[in-house]
Amino acid sequence: MDLVGERWALLVMRELMLGPKRFSDIRADLPGISANVLTQRLEGLEEAGIVTRQRLDPPASGQVYALTEWGHQARPIMGAMGRWATRSPGHDPGRHFSAVSLMLSFQAMNQPALSKEVTAVIAFRLGRENYFARLAECMVDVRRGAAPDADLTFTGAPAAIAAAVYGGVPLAELEREGTLRIEGDRALAERFVTLFPLPPKATKPAQ
Questions:
Q1: Interatomic CA distance for residues 206 and 204, integer angstroms
Q2: Tens-place pLDDT, residues 92-105
Q3: Which of the chain's termini has less CB crowding within 10 Å, N or C?
Q4: What secondary structure letter does DSSP report for 80?
């Protein structure tokens, strides 16, 4: 907690788990964080050896922040914390999802008993970024980038996909609303959204 216990620190790390990001993109994906606080957290994580700054190669310009090799080793810890947190009585799957948090949630909430017979590549066009999930041998591997060999593509805001996966909203309803577009294997889409059921909520002690 001495290393990552400051408010927003773990969320900043989460946003870098699938690749480097510009300062402006990190801030855009963390609603509520101020530029000053984000600067402080990045500086603190850099000082601790968790985050590093990189210069973009031409023709791009500017600077991005990335996790160090050691920083990336926190990924399974975040997955375990995410699974634990979904049991909170106050957990609301309808709240904000960044693109990275959505993709990492698929890895964290994967249940091998449900995904063991699914072998597929699923692409996600989430606003300004593309991601894909490769399902095979009971595993879910998520990465940033395009997937030209995708069997299925979801296009929409992360919140719309989360509504289908974690909120039980029918895909057809989201399509009618215009918040989600599905291309490719329709049966796979219907199955995919059932692979990550939330655990039962923890019970609060009687007052």
A1: 6
A2: 888 888 999 999 99
A3: C
A4: H
